[in-house]
Design brief:
about 325 residues; 2 domains; Methionyl-tRNA Fmet Formyltransferase, Chain A, domain 2; 7-stranded mixed sheet; Rossmann fold; 6-stranded antiparallel sheet; about 20% helix; about 25% strand; alpha/beta; 8 helices
Length: about 325
């Protein structure tokens, strides 16, 4: 049995910024012998090949990095390091049984929801879209299912009315870091009181794709408001206005007057309103096609606001 966490040989698997505080905590408190992450991706309009946030941290600390295209076929070099434990957080691939069965202390996942709620790829975004008032982080043993393993511990936090994907993600990342540090000694001592999930209570989330980013103004004001903040700051919700895609950064609930959903019904000096099923949603900040993010009041400088009034959004009018 490991007597000191510094002797615990850890392989960490993760990809986005969300996982960085967890990796940094493990580097400080354990012996991280390897990091597994997704391959470098082209970023921005210039398509610059950029490493994942986790790879950047690993390279700073001279930790060996693996970027398998499909981990189910490319795991021998990872297991050759003989880890005591594998810890994952938002890695992005499902681990095969040969990996799950390898480390003495098993494979542990840090998942950004209160399991069995919001299993899957987009728990943070989906709980905001749903208008949930609470979420949290679960530390769990991994099995062959999608976030179905035994729960080691969990901790909840409230979702604030103005939380975005970014603000809630930042909170949950720190929560996950601290909870994992608390549970690691119990995992190593094999004295944690893990328990099975109630599958009957399970809900699932999906990977958010390009086609999922378009706003549906047939929904209520609150649903549209939640949808916009759930996709902020990335990938951002969008609609079509005057034949151009416009990304919507910030909104607020408008009046409850009725009209045709998807129609721009009001234009003021710092916003414009689009009709939803139960009233107006005010658009406060946008990112026009090919331009930077900006407040609507700045967008209106040099722009004829009258071009917006009564326009039907979400469709090409050519």
């Amino acid at each position: 049995m490991i007597k000191n966490l510094k002797d615990l040989k850890v392989i960490f698997m993760g990809t986005p910024e969300f996982a960085v505080p967890i990796l940094e905590m493990l580097i400080e408190n354990t012996n991280v012998i390897g990091v597994v992450t997704q391959r470098d991706k082209e970023v921005g309009r210039k398509r610059i090949l950029t490493p994942s946030a986790i790879k950047a941290v690993a390279l700073e600390h001279n930790i060996k990095v693996f970027t398998p295209t499909k981990i189910k076929n490319e795991y021998e070099n990872i297991l050759a390091l003989e880890p005591d434990i594998i810890i994952t957080c938002a890695y992005g691939q499902i681990l095969p049984k040969v990996i799950l069965d390898n480390p003495y202390y098993g494979c542990i996942n840090v998942h950004a929801s209160l399991l069995p709620l919001y299993r899957g790829a987009s728990p943070i975004q989906t709980c905001i879209m749903d208008g949930a008032t609470e979420t949290g982080v679960t530390i769990m043993y991994m099995d062959e299912g999608m976030d179905t393993g035994n729960i080691i511990n969990y901790q909840s936090i409230p979702i604030e009315e103005d939380d975005t994907y970014k603000t809630l993600s930042d909170k949950l990342s720190i929560l996950g870091r601290d909870l994992l540090l608390k549970e690691l000694p119990k995992i190593v001592e094999e004295e944690n009181n893990n328990f099975k999930q109630d599958d009957e209570l399970a809900t699932y989330t999906k990977l958010i794709k390009r086609e999922d980013e378009r706003i549906n103004f047939n929904k209520t004001r609150k649903e549209v408001y939640n949808f916009v903040r759930a996709l902020n700051p990335t990938p951002l919700a969008n609609t079509i206005i005057n034949n151009e895609e416009v990304k919507i950064i910030e909104t607020r609930i408008g009046s409850d007057k009725k009209g045709v959903p998807g129609t721009i019904t009001n234009v003021s000096k710092d916003s414009f309103s689009i009709m939803c099923s139960d009233g107006e949603i005010e658009i406060i900040a946008i990112k026009p096609s090919g331009k930077k993010e900006m407040k609507v009041k700045d967008f209106f400088n040099g722009y004829d606001k009258n071009k917006l009034l009564n326009v039907k959004v979400g469709e090409n009018n050519e």
